[in-house]
UniProtKB/TrEMBL annotation:
The keyword ATP-binding does not apply. Coiled coil: none annotated. Keywords: Membrane, Transmembrane, Transmembrane helix. This is DUF3526 domain-containing protein. Signal peptide: none annotated. The chain crosses the membrane at residues 133-153, 184-204, 210-232, 239-260, 425-447. It comes from the Bacteria. It comes from Pyxidicoccus fallax. InterPro entries: DUF3526.
Amino acid sequence: MSMLLRYEARRLWTSRASVAALLGVLVLGLGAIALGVERTGQDAELVTLREQRLAEQQAHLRTSHAPDAELGLVLYYLSLPTVREPSPWTAVSTGLWDVYPGSQPLRLLGLVPQLHALEPDNPVRQLTGSFDLAFVLAFLVPLLVIGLGHDVLSGDEDLGTAFLVRAQPAPVSRLVLLRLGVRAAAVAALVLVLLGAAVVWTGSPLDARVLYAAFIGLGSVALWFLVVLLVASLRRSSAFTALTLVGVWLGSAVLVPALLNLGLSLGFPVPGGIQLTLTQRQEMNAGWDKPKRATMEPFVARRPEWASTQVPEERFSWPWYYAMHEVGDASVEAPLRAYREQLQRRNTWAEHLALVLPPVNVQLLFNRLAGTDLGAQLAYRDSVIAYHEQLKRHFYPPVFQGARHASLDYDAIPRHHFRPPEPRLFPGLVGLGLAVLALALLVPGACRRMDRAVS
């Protein structure tokens, strides 16, 4: 057996096509890591730039507005950054990072139009996705497995060496398992090299995420080699085996996900943020033509602590102006909540359906690991909503009490803080493990089928 093992290993490494395929995926994986590191570096620079711009803006406001200027006027121009900083794993799995902006300025004005700016700003990238290491591991490595293993049994018929296989004292199934084991070891080593390079290149800490990433990558390799074994056990031609395996990959990676995505879009329709923004703007702009009390009454119903605020009917006032923005937001409060819930339902169903689509499941697992999935984006969006409310609670008292610019302490202005939620990996990991186990249970039957065909 050790002689056969050495022979199969030498056969693999002397095959120019096999070595070229392994090296090709290695180069693509390293290139994907390089692109991811470059993207996250640009995002980190953007965070620094926004902080610099905030300091410059505050310095400008100090000099361009007199100390006795109305505070409401100064706050109209104040723009504060909200930041979702990339993690080291963002370079590995970009996910929705290139689709949704990771940093967004926020003002004290209406929230809904500003939330719309958190929607996808790159529809082309949303359609095509990003080229990253997760894409290589989820979609290209399975093709490598198919290329290396499709002729593991039928290749002897093609080369005219099948009689040598039948002459071996060991069962044919054992030889096939040995061949696939050698190829699986090579691909597994490649996956570990790429993940190791990613950890070193991105400076990721050696924590549980590294182990999760290794489990996901190696689990995908094991699953696809089991698929290769089961199809190869049918003992058809190499062309038939290759076409069948490519069909399985195409169905699970492209066709079925596209159909399911269409079904989810139809089953869980989500109104665009533009519709909510237009409704909010119409309600707010209508306030200019209404009596001031028509704006203040619904505002006071929401914030009774300002019931004693006196707003002049005959002229503009900043308390009325900010109240008008809040009333505009309130007009779409229920649709906005339904919008978020619908997105969450669609995401939950997508995660459940991905459990039966290994490439999609692997991709989503890496996205969750990196915090670039839709769940993380929704959590960031929720943090922006909470921060906007925090700003209103901080600034409304001085604005409604007629404070002046001199009273503004720029250093005491609340800052946005976002802590990414812990990734929900358990369902996807269990789904991947159960898929591997289910296919492994079919291996004994496949081995008996191969041995019977020879005998």
